[in-house]
Design goal:
Shape of chain A: globular
Oligomer: homodimer
Order of helices and strands of chain A: EHEHEHEEHEEEHEHHHHEEHEEEEEEH
Structural class of chain A: alpha/beta
Mean pLDDT of chain A: 95
Helix content of chain A: 25-40%
Number of helices of chain A: 11
Low-confidence stretches of chain A: none
Chain lengths: 366, 366
């Protein structure tokens, strides 16, 4: 990638979806999930090796998770932007854009690629190819979005509707965005998939820093005023160099809003690049097994396990032997002195445990 | 109870049915199962408090389990007969009968009550009352058996068929035994229950020591010859005082046979006392929950648990928090660094894990 291309990786997360493996101080992106012994964040970073160097990468995360994050990424991504609190993606991406602006040579207009730390991308080659095209689109002043070619009528994602094609040199397929559609009903999702004109919005964005900052200043002026003021007070204009308490008081005033709602749905500059790259948002235990489960019984096991007559079972243990007999469609997780058992169909509800533990003040399990 | 009444408690067990809570060195009778914090053995002993004193009690167990047993029963039952190997109940009861004979005043004919360490008996009052009657029956030279009034057509137990009544003073109901019936088919068991003449054989026996020794010498002469020879060589005739290696070489020659097959099915002296005393043989996890499960959802939990939307679930943990959501008819056991999960309907198969662990030499979990 050219020297003016930077990558920011959103690595927040409350650590509730993969409890008890994920915790507040060790959210899922810091866990080894799937078929790697590395954390998802490390895998995300290694996908950039030889593509974008470590000194042009940064991670945006919650300050409670900054230390655990840094322990994993000291060499592969030294710069960590520690948010005092989660204020949704508009604030996080504004923070990163301002940091990149301050890092880049004065007067330049660097490119920013925004990734997520907890995505599975099977086809790194396709991923890199589409990013190169997206950079070309971004250089035209566009807000480029990767649109994932849907494999099924998923009702848990937002969709991007493809508009008119944009003729940009060296780019195979890029179109204007006709509309953004929130999580659809199954019937609607089925029509989307059938049409061939709708793509999953994976939250993967590529833009020039000046483009997104300009849009943010237009659509989210209060947030940008606060952040610009903080920048003016920061050493070399870098928000990462501000004292934590200063950034905290700035952050407290920022609007909690997603970049999608704040900017993308309003901007006329959005463009979508359809891509099939084996993308998965591994949002909970059920998605994990459907992504990585193997063999005739489609079980997925990590650690010391003994399974008899089990089907579609996920077992993840950080030490204790887990012995299962005759169970199906079940998730069993042993981590940090807690054991969690639920049917795969209810894996989305695991956060109920976290809520209950919070309510009863049992911090040792959070 | 009169001073010539002794109790022996059979407390063997391989520790496979309640794995991973039960282990080879900590079989189920040493585990706190059910609604008590005490082990089943301790509960069995406490049922005798104020009835038969500690000095007239003894426990028969495998020598591998003797130390763990003694640690629990030092005050409540100091005498432990440690079998070098399990040779079934005829050998174990002969051992106990000979020990009692040697302990009792010379020329006396003491009474022996044989209990099991892993039975639940809800109605201690009824239990004691029937034992008092059974002692009276035993004094008539009978081999008295408690016959449990069946609550359902259980196919996992043997049945005792009631014969002609025996008129014995002070005993409400005692009859000759017409026949012993092995584990019946469901249809047959249903007829048994309907008839009112069949009772569960719980292995609870009351006899004079001379009676059972005489029957054993008649029906199992080789075993008794070997044990009598060992007695002759033992200090004060007490097999408990023999060196372990001496008893081991004697034991190696004993026939592996149950007292039922060796003696009871052949003897003409058997008598049955029907009793309804809330008796349960808690043989595996499923039986445990059906015995002790409480509340509308009939869950049974021990230790630190968090259950949402669970029904008929058994959870037993020795420390780690166990969080279950949306599961039914499931058993989850956490003990000694192992986690076991299986449907309640397959709880009988838990020993498969033990077999697999033995085969793979993973002694830490046995």
């Amino acid at each position: 990638m050219p020297q003016d291309v930077y990558v920011s990786i959103l690595a927040g997360g409350s650590g509730t979806r993969f409890w008890p493996k994920s915790r507040h101080k060790r959210p899922k992106q810091l866990c080894a999930l799937g078929d790697s012994k590395k954390s998802m964040l490390e895998v995300t970073l290694s996908r950039l090796d030889g593509f974008v160097p470590a000194e042009r990468r940064m991670i945006v995360t919650h300050r409670d998770q900054a230390e655990a994050t840094a322990a994993l990424t000291r060499d592969t991504c030294p710069l960590i932007l520690a948010e005092p609190e989660a204020r949704n993606t508009a604030a996080a991406l504004a923070l990163a854009a301002l940091e990149i602006k301050a890092m880049a040579p004065k007067g330049s207009n660097p490119i920013m690629i925004s990734l997520h730390a907890d995505h599975v991308i099977r086809d790194t080659h396709a991923f890199r190819r589409v990013l190169q095209e997206a950079v070309a689109v971004a250089r035209e002043g566009k807000i480029a979005l990767l649109g994932i070619v849907p494999t099924h009528p998923e009702t848990g994602f937002g969709y991007i509707e493809q508009g008119n094609p944009l003729p940009i040199k060296g780019v195979m397929s890029v179109s204007q965005v006709a509309s953004f559609r929130e999580k659809p009903a199954l019937e609607v999702a089925t029509q989307y998939v059938k049409s061939g004109r709708f793509f999953w919005n994976a939250g993967l964005f590529i833009w020039q820093v000046d483009t997104i900052l300009s849009e943010l200043r237009q659509f989210l002026p209060d947030t940008m005023k606060a952040l610009d003021a903080a920048c003016a007070a920061a050493p070399e204009g870098r928000l990462s160099q501000l004292p934590a308490s200063t950034l905290a008081s700035t952050y407290a005033s920022l609007k909690k809003i997603s970049i999608d709602v704040a900017v993308l749905e309003k901007s006329t500059r959005t463009a979508v690049l359809p891509i099939d790259m084996g993308w998965k948002d591994v949002g909970s235990w059920d998605a994990l097994r459907s992504t990585f489960g193997k063999g005739g019984n489609a079980n997925l096991t990590f650690g010391d396990t003994m399974l008899f007559d089990c089907e579609r079972v996920t077992v993840d243990t950080d030490g204790p032997l887990v012995a299962c007999l005759g169970v199906k469609d079940l998730v069993v997780v042993v981590s940090g002195g807690a054991v969690m058992v639920c049917p795969e169909s209810r894996a989305q509800e695991v956060k109920r445990f976290v809520e209950e533990l919070q309510a009863s003040g049992r911090k040792e399990y959070l």
